[in-house]
Specification:
The protein is 25% helix and 23% strand. Mean pLDDT is 77; it is low at 63-89, 295-310 and 339-359. It is of the alpha+beta class. It has 3 domains: 2-14 and 108-368, Endonuclease/exonuclease/phosphatase (Deoxyribonuclease I, Chain A, 4-Layer Sandwich); 17-67, no CATH class; 69-103, no CATH class. This is Endonuclease/exonuclease/phosphatase. It comes from Flagellimonas olearia.
């Protein structure tokens, strides 16, 4: 049984809020590039075009040259013009398309999507767990149109679970080769100390049954990210404690084959993840003797060993319970890269030329004999 997990960061469309989140870190780069081009006394047409683009990105220009706009299948808001004193919230078959659209997303090109497809195809997992999927129709298209041709057939079972995220992002699981999705439990209703959502994007449990009848529980996680809030470390620790409680409950029920995977937002030696990683209950795959970081094998030094080059600074995880860890045959990490032929995990920690900014999440995989 081969399991892979990847924070896909949207399949086809990305919410506009991501642009706002990235504005501050990109603004300085845009300003430096603009100043560099401005000092050039000979400005050819392509230089002037780039300066116009930068001016728009920095907010100097009110015009844009985007070739098209896209409305999300879920999350876009449609309004029609008032008809007399009547105001309707959306266009219907009765009123037709007599209105305007509030766009909430922008399209991702193939340069963002194709490296992820190639990465998944190379791993060829039996079970694929994805985080930050925008909606069910997108997952269906991605499975059928992109993964199917690469894997010799699409995943025959798949499930999308939308949670609390206001952008509509959720978790997804796909299964093939006789593996069946037989159970699903949401934790979107969990509350924190302030009566807010404990999980901003849910933390669902999926039950998988192998072809020989063995039952596996997979918990897909997307913990609190860094932000303006000053308590994001405390929030992550609460989330880790809750996931640990889920594992304890499953163990008490006799379900000892458990996988916890996804973005946990903290380094492995951080205090926030101590409830999950501080004991002997869940094991992280880099601890395994056959862990492959796609840069060759060597001493298992997660702090500075040559094969890992800072892998201890990762925020994405694939954890397994002792019952599964003992059955692990191979495991590793692969990074979707934006240029063919490039190898390594550099894009986990920096963004050199040739890497897209949404390629930062690696794909983790593990193969078990169950």
């Amino acid at each position: 049984m081969k399991i892979a997990t990847l924070n896909i960061q949207n399949l086809f469309h990305r919410d506009l809020s991501f642009l706002k989140q990235n504005a501050s870190k990109n603004l300085q780069d845009w300003m430096e590039e603009f100043q560099h081009l401005l000092r050039n006394p000979k400005k050819e047409e392509h230089v002037l075009n780039r300066m116009r683009e930068l001016a728009f990105l920095m907010g100097f220009s009110p015009q844009t040259t985007e070739p098209f706009l896209t409305l999300r299948r879920k999350g876009g808001h449609l309004y029609v013009k008032p008809l007399g004193s009547e105001r309707q919230s959306k266009a219907t078959e009765r009123v037709g398309w007599n209105g305007w659209v509030e766009l909430r997303s922008y399209p991702l090109d193939e340069g963002h999507r194709q490296p992820k497809v190639e990465c998944i195809a190379q791993a060829a997992p039996d079970i694929l767990v994805l985080q930050e999927v925008e909606d069910r129709p997108s997952l269906s298209d991605f499975n059928r149109e992109y993964l199917g041709p690469k894997l010799g057939g699409a995943f025959d079972q798949w499930l999308f679970a939308e949670g609390n995220d206001p952008r509509g992002l959720g978790h997804a699981i796909l299964a093939r080769n006789g593996y069946r999705i037989t159970g699903f439990q949401t934790h979107a209703h969990e509350r924190d100390a302030t009566d807010g959502d404990l999980f901003g994007m849910d933390c669902p449990e999926f039950t998988i049954v192998t072809p020989n009848g063995t039952e596996i529980t997979i918990i897909s996680a997307r913990f609190q990210g860094d932000g303006l809030s000053t308590d994001f470390h405390a929030k992550r620790k609460k989330q880790a404690q809750r996931v640990c409680w889920y594992c304890d409950r499953l163990k008490a029920e006799g379900k000892d084959k458990i996988v916890v995977c996804g973005y946990l937002g903290e380094v492995a030696y951080g205090d926030a993840l101590r409830p999950l990683l501080g004991g002997k209950w869940m094991r992280d795959i880099p601890q395994h003797l056959d862990f492959d970081a796609a840069m060759g094998k060597g001493p298992k030094d997660l702090v500075g060993g040559e094969p890992y080059k800072g892998w201890s600074a990762k925020h994405d995880y694939l954890l397994s319970s002792p019952a599964l860890y003992g059955a692990m045959q191979r495991c590793g990490v692969q990074v979707p890269l934006s240029q063919k032929g490039q190898k390594g995990i550099t894009s986990l920690f920096s963004n050199p030329k040739g890497y897209s900014d949404n390629m930062a999440h690696p794909m983790l995989w593990a193969e078990f004999d169950v």
